[in-house]
Design a protein that fits this description.
PyrdxlP-dep_Trfase_small; aminotransferase; three-stranded parallel β-sheet; Aspartate Aminotransferase, domain 2; PseC; transferase; alpha+beta; about 15% strand; 15 helices; EC 2.6.1.92; about 400 residues; Aspartate Aminotransferase, domain 1; four-stranded mixed β-sheet; binds pyridoxal-5'-phosphate
Length: about 400
């Protein structure tokens, strides 16, 4: 058999029309702050069903802008699940806020109303400013239930939807899309290359709140205001009644978190393929689900609760390594030798040295149980059905032998 190419756990799909869109953007007058930014934002807002979408330089910036937009600051508390990428917690630390880590369900990896309620017992009278559910693996967290718990403490939800662009779900028979902000103040997306839709680096914030949207859009670009109607200092802004053509006002301390036109062009082109990418990921996951029962009970796919149509950012299995008599490192390396890349999502954030130094040792047993077993298998929209067969076959050989 000829050597099959190495299969990474995730990889972008870039097609000829993506290249053409980028080339066209590179020949345009504006490489950044041009018309493609607003076009990408409008198309994205429409796709996810939000009033506003604000493009930014990456998913971490999107989360930071959400914290800034909500006015999260020193002494405030933000609750995030510990089973996530570090950025979910770091965005609060950028603002000097404290992170209280919530545990997760050991089978889904998702924060639940119960684990959120437990985390809320640990905030110690400090103001809770936001709760950040993570749609791990593309599976929507139970937003209505989380909202009920968070709302009781006066805190809005901010969704970390880095995994969930293209996820649709049904709560109480109402069809919803991740990003429509039906239950949250803001939703944050990432367009990193391993995510379902990519701009190389990129992110998006969606919201239905007009004032929040305006604040986030300004903070993305230094806190600068360009609309004369909103100027607060007549001396800089106006020559008598007439606005000075060069005038702008910095009214708050913002950042340069802009997404250039060149990348917005790629985003627009990729967005048009999102449904196809999600459909393909779901077909591949279906194939995994058909083949994996052969490896039960050692291996089983991560549980998917109420989500009706996950975009499946990752295809995660939970493996009983103890029963298999092998460590995760051994299994990963044996798969790698067979040309199959896997990854672990994630080391619980509360165990990272930075957070241990801040908050000490904590035991969050659901996250530990999930972390001990999880392994992300290859899932790319560009994979063939046969690739799934090859992965499951190899995993069977590795665990059996
Ligand atoms: C990728 C990711 C982020 C950060 O996105 P970047 O675009 O890499 O900054 C945040 N949260 C989660 C859960 C992610 O997977």
């Amino acid at each position: 058999m000829a050597d099959a190419p190495f299969l990474a756990y995730g990889r972008q799909v870039i097609e000829d029309d993506d290249l053409a869109a980028v080339a066209q953007a590179l020949r345009a007058d504006f490489l950044t702050t041009g018309p493609r930014v607003a076009q990408f934002e409008a198309a994205f807002a429409e796709k996810v069903g939000a009033r506003h979408a604000i493009a930014c330089s990456n998913g971490t910036a999107a989360l930071h802008l959400a914290m800034l937009g909500l006015g999260v600051g020193p002494g405030d508390v933000v609750i995030a699940p510990t089973l996530t990428f570090a950025a979910t917690a770091n965005c609060a630390r950028y603002q000097g806020a404290e992170v209280v880590f919530a545990d997760v369900d050991p089978d889904t990896g998702l924060m639940t109303a119960d684990t959120l309620a437990e985390a809320m017992t640990r905030i110690g009278g400090r103001p809770l400013k936001a709760v950040l559910p993570v749609h791990l693996n593309g599976h929507a967290a139970d937003l209505p239930a989380l909202k009920r718990v968070a709302e009781a403490a006066g805190a809005p939800l901010v969704e970390d939807a880095a995994h969930a662009v293209g996820t649709a779900m049904t709560f109480d028979n109402v069809p919803e899309r991740v990003g429509d902000c039906r239950h949250s103040a803001l939703t944050c997306f990432s367009f990193h290359p391993v995510k379902t839709l990519t701009t190389g680096e990129g992110g998006m914030v969606t919201t239905n709140d007009d004032a929040l949207a305006q604040r986030v859009a300004r903070l993305r670009s230094h806190g600068i205001v360009r609309e004369p109607a909103d100027f607060v200092d007549p001396e800089i802004g106006f020559d008598g009644e007439a606005p000075n053509p060069w005038a702008y006002e910095q009214q708050a301390l913002g950042y340069n978190y802009r997404l250039p036109d060149v990348l917005c062009a790629l985003g627009l082109s990729q967005l048009a393929k999102l449904d196809r990418f999600v459909e393909r990921r779901r077909q591949l996951a279906q194939r995994y689900n058909e083949l994996l029962p052969a490896l039960a009970p050692l291996v089983r796919p991560v549980a998917q609760p109420w989500t009706s149509r996950s975009a499946l950012h990752l295809f995660v299995v939970l493996i009983d390594f103890t029963a298999a008599g092998q460590t995760r490192r051994q299994v990963m390396e044996a798969l790698r030798a067979k040309g199959i890349g896997t990854q672990v999502h994630y080391i619980p954030v509360h165990r990272q040295p930075y957070y241990r130094a801040l908050y000490g040792e904590q035991t969050l047993s659901g996250a530990e149980a999930y972390y001990a077993r999880c392994l992300s298998l290859p899932l790319q929209a560009g994979m063939a059905d046969g690739d799934v067969d090859r992965v499951v076959g190899a995993l069977g050989e590795v665990l059996g032998g």
